[in-house]
Amino acid sequence: MDPRQVAIETAARYDTNNPFEIARERNIRILYQPLKTTLGFYVRYRRIQSIILNDTLSEGMQRFVCAHELGHSILHADLNVPKLTSYTLFSRDKFELQANSFAVELLMPDALLREYPECSIQQLANTVGVPKEFAELKQCREIPSLYRRTL
Hints:
Helices cover 47% and strands 15% of the residues. By secondary structure, the chain is α+β, with helices and mostly antiparallel strands.
């Protein structure tokens, strides 16, 4: 299962790329808690799904972490995925990479790049809450020359 394609299909299905709205539509509760170094995590217990976010995150980082955990809820629904911390955010673990790719594609759809052709991938990433380290995960299928020019 390609996480980028799943993100595109998810955004189309719910007619939004807002991870909070998609979570709401999927009956996933969003909770905010003081989590120290943990950025967030997804948990499913007795068919109740929840995304728990660190209550000290910036608005942009909340969007990214929510999208990341939403990715886990869709891509890895039957797995107990460990919490996302500032240390594991850059993990090379297969499941974390998939959730990051899902989040980047959800928050930075190709349509956004077409709408703002004067902006670089890095600028758009900053605007939508994608950490700069993950902007490179964006694969622009429809505008490959733009993608190469802006990295």
